[in-house]
Amino acid sequence: MGQERTVKILISDSLSTRGVDVLERGGFTADVSTKLSKEQLLDTIKDYDGIIVRSGTRVTAEVIDAGSRLKIIGRAGTGLDNVNCDAATRRGIVVMNTPGGNTITTAEHTIALMVAMSRKIPQASASTRAGRWEKNAFMGTELYNKTLGLVGLGQIGTCVTKLAQGLAMNVIGHDPYLSVDRAHALGIEAVELDELFTRSDFISVHTPLTKETRSLIDAQAINKMKDGVMLVNCARGGIINEQDLHAALTDHKVAAAAFDVFEKEPVPPDHPLLALDNFICTPHIGASTEEAQENVAVAIAEQFVDYFKKGVTRGAVNIPSVPPEILPQIHPYLGLAERMGFFQAQLIDGGIDQVTVEYSGEVANLTLAPLTVAVLKGLLAPILQDAVNAVNAPLVAKKRGIEVREVKGGDAGEYTSLICLRLKVGDQVHQLAGTLYGKKEPRIVESNAYAVEVIPEGHMLLIYNVDRPGVIGMVGGILGEHDVNISWMQCSRTKKGSDALLVIGLDGPPSIQVVDILRKQQDILSVRLMDLSRVS
What we know:
CATH class of the largest domain: Alpha Beta
CATH topology of the largest domain: Rossmann fold
Distance between the termini: 19 Å
CATH superfamily of the largest domain: NAD(P)-binding Rossmann-like Domain
Number of strands: 22
Structural class: alpha/beta
Number of domains: 4
CATH architecture of the largest domain: 3-Layer(aba) Sandwich
Mean pLDDT: 91
Strand content: 15-25%
Number of helices: 17
Shape: elongated
C-alpha cells in the first residue's frame, strides 16, 4: 500500500505564525504565499487540499473550479464577502470562518471610534501637531446617558452593548432574531428599526452585508433620525449609503460619522467623505490587534486539523456544524444515518420524490440537522454519478426536486433511540429503521415491515422469497457451489405462510452470474446484491 499523501494547505493572506505552527504540528504542509495575482492563484490552487484567506484573496468560482483537490476554504475572520460560498457548496467544499475570534477587538474599535468621533480627537490631534492650540474649536459631546442604537445584536453587537453600558449609555437594539428574553438578559430594549432611528443619539451597525442590508441606512432612513445623530460602521462597507451620508454630513443632519469599512477598499483618496471635517475613518483595522490575529489564526488552523483528522466541522457556514462537546454523543448516529441512506438507496428503483427522517427516543434530543444531511449523503451517493458529500447533499436533493422532511417522533418502543427513514418513490413507500446497540454499534432493525438485525457493512444479499421449506437450503447450496462463503444469515417474515425476507452476509461479492442463478429459482421473488463496503 502506498504512503498516505500529506494534506497541503495554502495560506494566501498574512496569518499569525501560531496558526501555521498548529497546521504543521497536525502533520500538514502549510505554504504561505501572499499577494498572488489572479493568474498565479489559479495555477497554484490545483495542488492544495485547503486554502486559508483573510480579506485580501478573492476565492471566486473560477478559483474554486481550478482547485481540483480543494476540500475546504477557511476565512481567518468573520466576513465571507470575498468567498463564493454558492460555488463552493456546489462543488462539495466546506467553507469555514472564525466568527468569535475578533469579537472583542472589533467591539472595542467601535467604542474607540465613537469616543474619537464625539470628542473630535483626530481633528484636535491634527490641529495641535500643526502648531495650533485651538481649545474652543473642538467642543465635544458626552456619551454619558446618551442613547445608543445597535442594528444587529450578534456576538459583536452584544459585546458593544456591554462596553457601552459600562460607559453609562442607554442601549436599544434591533435584530430580527433577537428574542424578548434575550434582550431582557442583555439589559436592553428591543425596538423596530424605525423607532431605533428616531430615538438614538448614536447608531452603530453590526450586521452582515446582504441584499437586505445593503444601503439599510440611506437618505430615507437618515431623515427619520434626530438632528445631530452620530453614525458608526465597523461592520461592512455598503450598509450605510456613502453618497447619502455625505449629503447628510454636509448639511449637518448627521453631526459626525466614523467608518472602519468602505464599499470599495482601499478607499480612493478622492472619496468625498474624506474631505469632510466631521468624518473620521480607519483602514479596516477593527480586527487588527495582536490578540485577535493570533485568535483567528489559531482558531481556523485548529478547525482545519479537526476537519481533516476527525471529520469535525466547526465554524462551517455551508454545512451543519457539530459542537465539539456533543460530538461523542452524535458521532455514532452520524455513521448509522449515512449507512441507512446508503442501504436504502440500493433497494429502490426510480426517482425519489420525498425523504422523511423521523427521530424517536434519546436521539430526538440531539442536534438533528447533521444527521439528516448524513442520511442524504448516504442516500444520494450510490444513485448519482456526481460527487455527493455532506456539504452539497441538501443542495443536490433540492435541485432534483426531492422534498426532505425532518420529524421528531415520540417513544422509540423497545429501543433507546430509533431513526426511521421513509422514501416516497412514485406510488410506493419504502421504510427502513435503525438504532445503535450499546449506543455505538449501528443496526438495521426493520426493512419494509420485516423485523431484522442487520449490521450495515460489507457485502450482503437481500432475497425476498416464498415462505416454504427448502428455500434457505437451496440458496445456501447455490452459494456454496460457487465458492461464495456466508458469514451470517437472517430470516424474517410478517406472518406464517407469507412472503419472507432472507438477508445473507457474505465474505465477498458474488459474481453477477451467481445472482442471476438465484433470481431464476422458482421460489425466489427478488434478489438484491448490497455493497456497504464503500460507505465511509
